[in-house]
Write a structure and sequence with these properties.
The complex is a heterodimer of chains A (382) and B (291).
Chain A: H1 2-25, E1 28-34, H2 41-60, E2 69-75, H3 80-93, E3 96-101, H4 105-118, E4 122-124, H5 130-134, E5 144-146, H6 151-165, H7 167-170, E6 173-178, H8 181-195, E7 203-207, H9 215-224, E8 228-232, H10 236-247, E9 254-256, H11 265-269, E10 277-280, H12 289-302, H13 308-327, H14 332-340, E11 344-345, E12 351-352, E13 363-370, E14 373-381
Parallel strand pairs in A: 1-2, 1-3, 3-4, 4-5, 6-7, 6-8, 8-9
Antiparallel strand pairs in A: 10-13, 11-12, 13-14
Helix pairs in contact in A: 2-13, 3-4, 6-8, 13-14
Chain B: H1 3-34, H2 41-58, H3 63-86, H4 94-116, E1 131-134, E2 137-140, H5 141-163, H6 165-175, H7 177-182, H8 187-209, H9 220-234, H10 239-257, H11 262-279
Antiparallel strand pairs in B: 1-2
Helix pairs in contact in B: 1-5, 1-8, 1-9, 1-10, 2-3, 2-4, 2-8, 2-9, 3-8, 5-6, 5-8, 6-8, 9-10, 9-11, 10-11
Classes of the chains: A alpha/beta (382), B mainly alpha (291).
Chain lengths: 382, 291
């Protein structure tokens, strides 16, 4: 028996050594739960591309801790149940050292308890619901960090701009938003921001994501004559809203989070949306060297210009990669600790530092539409 | 609410209802003749819209020509669909047809996602932002065209079914397949034609609505679920019932949309469907007059 044990022991040691070597050479894997199918897939695709660009740049520069980085994107269909399923799979595989995104606020809120239990950092790139911030950091989930501004921050910046420049337009704003945490959270945040100036929303209408027809709600809004219509919509819904808005001659300026880059160019150029004022976390036209470099690199790699989601995916991935580097090890707890000490300059030029609720305070880009063109009116710190 | 707003809501509802009818009639016809609920109907509508988009925006073919080409193409797809997938199912149980059409729906939707990506597209035509003014109300021209096309299509289907030998053969197969066979009707040919017309109508709907609604791989979802509710309310397989239910639903939804939040409006069709299933399972117009 003693003779037989030695070769077995040696083989086991060799196998362990080989496995340890293989692990050291394996890429460091970052999970990403995104809508890759379903109504928000267009946005998920852009967020994924943004993260892929950040990973490609890091790998081209030699990787992190002597290893390459790999992205592990999983589909959540912008659905909380699917998001839980995708993140549970990532957590049970124990390969992802951090998880990016969720994209849709409802999906992110469903993912948050899972990452807290598993003690893996979740870095939110795109979801904007203020509830995510309220539940993170001090007194809440210390594993969740949010790189992009929340609806509350964006609404404050938007209302601040309107009150300063076009106060009469802020007096009677109606909301048209999707019936999700994004839409409802956006409306609540806007109402709260207006409340700081003694105003409130005139009305709120929420529709099911993917609704194709907005004729009834536009007819109603046209008769109610609000000063502006605050839109909280994504994907194809934006196109349907924009086209039906013009077809029915609604003629009331938009505000809120209307994604101007999804509005068909002929509608924008027609001047039908002139007078609209919206707040976004990004516009490709922002004039900083880092943004120009990002737009060029993104367009070269994917053949399409970046949008808000691509930039947020990129920025969030950069934050995670930077944290891994500073942590000195690919360990979720060490990465979480490093995330708390993040101090990076965003491509818009603001410092990315997380506050007590793990929210970074980047710029809000205030966009106005004048003469059929989208113009950057202000960059307001959130 | 003033009269102008009410008139606008009524006109919107009429157009929306006829759009529902255009999609629902094909579904009702297919069920009426071969007793298969086509869960891929929404994806066939989507393919019609995608084809029309590429014909107009990439190949420069005109709006009307694209509608004609897509409708003819969809008719052909219907024949292939019947011969390859649906005919072999004859007499093999309801659950098989559900699984097959559901599977087809997933393949078509995800195939479109893979090939075309999820980027939403808008077909632009010379009529895109033109409209007709009726008093204080306005009707976008493209919606008016969809309304006219739907009425013409419905009229053609109705005349075919009630005043031609081929249509009478389809109705015969729908009412009693064995008896139809005994009097010399070829059930397979009648069923093939019914599927071809049903799919052709979904292609027509897709092509007519491509410049009205955003074109993307999951665009069929919203309309086809309404269409399911419509054919259940009207009486499964009853084409006239489906048409009347669809137009009524469009008008009710639009008028309610003037008072209620959109999320409640969406529930109207399904609440009506549940009530019908509980109180009158055969539908408002019954199954006795199928097809």
């Amino acid at each position: 028996m003693r003779v037989g044990l030695s070769p077995v022991f040696a083989a086991t040691v060799c196998a362990l050594m080989f496995s340890a070597t293989a692990r050291a050479e394996d890429p460091i894997q970052i999970g990403a739960s995104l809508p890759l199918t379903g109504t928000a897939a267009f946005f998920g695709q852009h967020s994924r591309w943004g993260a892929e660009l950040a990973v490609a740049e890091a790998n081209a520069a030699g990787g992190v801790l002597g290893r390459q980085i790999a992205l592990d994107p999983q589909d959540n269909r912008c659905n909380p149940t699917e998001a839980v399923k995708s993140v549970s799979q990532m957590l049970s595989d124990k390969k992802d050292v951090a998880i990016l995104d969720g994209l849709c606020s409802s999906a992110i809120l469903a993912m948050m308890p899972l990452v807290e239990r598993a003690e893996v950092p979740l870095v939110v790139a795109n979801g904007t619901a203020t509830a995510i911030v309220d539940k993170s950091g001090a007194g809440g989930n210390k594993w969740v960090f949010k790189v992009n501004p929340s609806d509350g921050s964006l609404a404050d910046a938007l209302v601040g701009y309107l009150v300063e420049h076009e106060k009469d337009k802020a007096a009677k704003i109606a909301v048209l938003g999707e019936d999700t945490d994004f839409g409802r959270g956006g409306a609540q945040a806007l109402d709260a921001a207006l409340g700081k100036f003694g105003m409130k929303l005139a009305s709120s209408d929420f529709y099911q994501q993917g609704t194709p027809d907005f004729t009834a709600v536009f007819t109603k809004l046209r008769s109610e004559k609000p000063s502006m219509i605050a839109v909280y919509a994504v994907g194809a819904d934006v196109q349907n809203i924009a086209r039906q808005y013009v077809s029915f001659g609604v003629g009331i300026p938009f505000t809120g989070r209307l994604l101007t880059d999804l509005v068909p160019p002929e509608i924008m150029a027609s001047g039908a949306l002139d007078g609209s004022v919206v707040a976004q976390a990004y516009a490709p036209e922002v004039d900083t060297p880092a943004n120009h470099a990002f737009v060029d690199a993104f367009t070269k790699k994917f053949g399409k210009p970046p949008n808000l989601l691509s930039r947020e995916g990129y920025e969030a991935a950069c934050v995670v990669i930077d944290a891994i580097k500073r942590a000195g090890q690919a360990d979720p707890a060490a990465i979480r600790d490093a995330l708390e000490k993040t101090d990076l300059t965003s491509i818009l030029g603001a410092q990315i530092k997380f506050d007590d609720h793990h929210l970074a305070h980047d710029y809000a880009v205030i966009l106005t539409v004048k003469g059929g063109k989208v113009v950057i009116a202000a960059l307001n710190k959130t | 609410m003033d009269f102008a707003t009410l008139l606008q809501l009524l006109i919107n509802g009429l157009v929306l209802g006829v759009i529902y009818a255009l999609i629902a009639i094909g579904l009702a016809l297919i069920f009426g003749v071969i007793e298969i609920v086509n869960f891929a109907h929404g994806e066939l509508y989507m393919l019609g819209a995608v084809a029309a988009y590429f014909l107009t925006m990439n190949l420069g073919i005109g709006f009307w020509a694209s509608i004609a080409l897509v409708t003819i193409g969809a008719f052909g797809v219907g024949i292939v669909l019947y011969e390859l997938l649906l005919a072999p199912l004859a007499g093999q149980g309801f659950e098989r047809s559900i699984l097959l059409t559901l599977g087809l729906s997933m393949v078509l939707q995800n195939g479109a996602m893979f090939l075309l990506t999820s980027t939403p597209r808008l077909e632009t035509t010379p009529y895109s932002y033109r409209f007709l003014v009726l008093g204080d109300a306005r009707v976008p021209l493209l919606r008016l065209f969809a309304l006219i096309l739907a009425l013409v299509a419905f009229g053609a289907v109705y005349v075919t079914l009630h005043h031609t030998r081929t249509g009478k053969a389809m109705r015969g197969v729908a009412q009693n397949r064995a008896a139809a066979l005994m009097v010399g009707i070829d059930p397979r040919a009648a069923a093939r034609l019914a599927v071809a017309i049903g799919v052709g109508l979904s292609g027509l709907a897709g092509a007519a609505l491509a410049p009205v609604y955003s074109v993307h791989p999951v665009m069929g979802f919203a309309f086809v679920f309404k269409a399911f509710a419509v054919i259940i309310i009207g009486g499964l397989g009853n084409i006239l019932g489906a048409a009347i239910s669809a137009v009524s639903l469009g008008i009710v939804e639009s008028i309610a949309g003037g008072f209620l939040p959109p999320a409640f409006v969406d529930a109207i069709a399904f609440i009506a469907m549940i009530l019908i299933l509980l109180l009158r399972p055969q539908g408002l117009f019954g199954r006795g007059v199928r097809v």
